Amino acid sequence: MSGAPGQNGASVAARTCLSPRLIAYAQHVREHFPRAIAGTTVADLDALADDVCTSLDDFPLTTGVLGCTVFEHGEAYTAIREGLRRDEPARYRFTLAHELSEILLRRYLDALPDQCRREHVCDAFAAELLLPHAAVLATVAVLIEAHAGGPGPSDATLDQLARRMAFTYDVSLTAARISIAECLPKGT
Ligand SMILES: [Zn+2]
């Protein structure tokens, strides 16, 4: 299930909670359902959804719920809030990536003790499918290098980078900002 406004933000910040095994699995998924963006391979969500969802529908969902997956006899039925794809494409993509993560990681998630932790892992995995941490890190490293010896990149520069990444990777600006902040040296 995914919901709660602002989840995109929290989610990307939570990425560091992924174990190296899950990071590697996310890479494996990206490589099997590749979509090339700016020299990086992200996951092609539509192809991935075709593969893992038994059905994927637009649905009028309860307030606060953006997406939901129901498992029945091993089949996954996913619903995303009606109109989200049209009205908020970046949030739609994140919501879909979250639901796909619930399906892909189902067995792993079943072993986790609490729901909050499970949602956290799905958000982090979704972020890793859409905007791989390693790619952000590489870009930020170049920027830091370019400002070596000085006061470091300005807030305006970082914001510009966030806007460019959000546009390039088709993620929300919040997601891009948090992702970049995660890659900055501490104290910046
Ligand atoms: Zn969920």
UniProtKB/TrEMBL annotation:
Residues 86-139 form the IrrE N-terminal-like domain. This is ImmA/IrrE family metallo-endopeptidase. It comes from Candidatus Cryosericum odellii.
